[in-house]
Amino acid sequence: MLLIPCPYCGERAELEFRYGGEAHFRRPDNHLEASDESWANYLFMRKNPKGWHRERWMHIAGCKRWFYVVRHTVTHRIAAAYKVGDPWPDLPA
Amino acid sequence: MKRYSFVQLLRNAIGFGEGWQEAWRSPEPKPSYDVVIVGGGGHGLATAYYLAKLHGIRNVAVLEKGWLGGGNTGRNTTVVRSNYLWDESAAIYEHSLKLWESLSQDLNYNVMFSQRNLVMLAHTEHELNEASRRVHANRLNGIDAEIWSREKTLAFIPILNGSMDIRYPVMGASAQPRAGIARHDAVAWGFARGADALGVDIIQNCEVIGVRRDGTRIVGLDTTRGAIDAKKVAFVAAGHSSVLAALAGFRLPIESHPLQAMVSEPIKPVLDTVVMSGTVHAYVSQSDKGELVMGAGIDAFNSYAQRGSLPILEEIASAMIELFPIVSRLKILRSWGGIVDICPDASPIIGKTPVDGLFINCGWGTGGFKATPGSGWVLADTIANDRPHKLAEPFALERFSSGRLIDEHGAAAVAH
Ligand SMILES: Cc1cc2nc3c(=O)[nH]c(=O)nc-3n(C[C@H](O)[C@H](O)[C@H](O)COP(=O)(O)OP(=O)(O)OC[C@H]3O[C@@H](n4cnc5c(N)ncnc54)[C@H](O)[C@@H]3O)c2cc1C
Ligand SMILES: [Zn+2]
Predict the structure, then answer these.
(1) Quick check: is A77 in a domain?
(2) The domain that contains A9 carries what CATH number?
(3) pLDDT tens digits, A10-41
(4) Which of A24, A86, B329, B374 could serve as a FRET partner for B25 with CA atoms 20 to 30 Å apart?
(5) What is the pTM of this model?
(6) CA nearest B38: which of B187, B245, B180, B191?
(7) How many other C-beta atoms are found inside a 10 Å radius of the C-beta of residue B42?
(8) Cβ–ligand 1 contact at B244 (below 6 Å)
(9) Is residue A17 part of a domain?
């Protein structure tokens, strides 16, 4: 089980959280003119890296707030957690 | 290749098993091939087999980074069925089910396909309605499907909890009599042996680490066993599809997740069918060894680790005890995970890619074992003729920009 460091409440068990997938992708600007491809990119295409991943979690059984986590998709190690609007921490080497 | 037969069995028994030959060769990779398949799971091996058998393309290699069937093929719980909701899915899964019905004979290899019926329980009014919608859709597509009453369901599965005093009492079910289970390893080995006999090189311990292109065209691959030229390439790598796509310079609408399963200690036969419950959320069958084979849903987070979190196993166990109280004292023998390639509409991606000469077959997620022969069949045809097979056409990557998704989420119950 993952131990997830909520930036508001501290470390809690994975069971208290809801996963929100890849973080930081951006809705197309000018949505009326945006091409089908850019919508597909936004809605469906994912990096899905084998390695460090910036992802969204929500503390559903706690403060109920969304935040970001940097987690490794092979070791499951969590390197950082940060609030919406915070500067992005660097990915570990 | 010597055919397996009763006479062979007898002869080799007398010879203390010394006379058996290896089921496939282990050749060194050649510098170039007409077609290279990346991924030695069931789907990749089936593709190679049908390329050689039906299309006469035999200068083919299958590259596998580990061992044959060591990915999801050898980790899955082997439910085979075709009762999907939408026409496109029904067509490809039913094509596959028909191939399963004669696969052991075709491959001269016993894949132990056992059509033992599959019962999808309904625990609410809503689920009963959904089930009858799906059963009617299935029948219109020529697929055997039945709606069962509560009484019939309980009589068919004696160990099922029939109490009305539980949170989700059994209210009825849908069933597919021709559905069942098969032996997962045998499927990989049978296709490998068949493909090898037709000249296909099966190369294990060979990981693809780079894609070589000439402009928009793929011309070869870099591997841990050297460079290999190829006229055409197909990625059939399930959970690792995004990694390979990134090497080739494009993205996929796929996220990789752990999917776990577990088996109990072996017990006397108690269950002669496959049971699934979407609401209580578990599914189960009993293996020939007597183990109960159990599973449920994916772990929520992205992962390539082939292991998941404990809460999922606890959920499977508590759902099992709710459905089948007699299992409450059973010991769990082992649990494991595979990395499944989850697609937003719970349907596969089959066909061409943005790179010329490069084909892809992925996104089968939690339910692709049942599609193994059909998937290989349509991909082989697609590669040989450089255009999508009729059954593969709706599953093209373009559907994510055209918006023509094939949304099987609702229809898949526990999606296996
Ligand atoms: C626990 C579990 C239960 C399941 N239950 C069912 C079920 O009941 N019914 C059902 O229909 N489906 C089920 N599935 C899904 C099913 O297992 C898969 O959809 C199917 O087996 C995929 O087959 P494949 O050949 O595409 O993939 P795999 O068998 O995973 O083969 C892909 C291969 O590609 C190789 N590979 C990856 N990257 C590279 C590289 N760079 N170079 C070389 N080789 C590479 C991998 O090592 C792997 O062997 C289940 C899956 C799991 C994990
Ligand atoms: Zn919190």
Answers:
(1) yes
(2) 3.30.2270.10
(3) 999 999 999 999 999 899 999 899 999 999 99
(4) B374
(5) 0.97
(6) B245
(7) 33
(8) yes
(9) yes
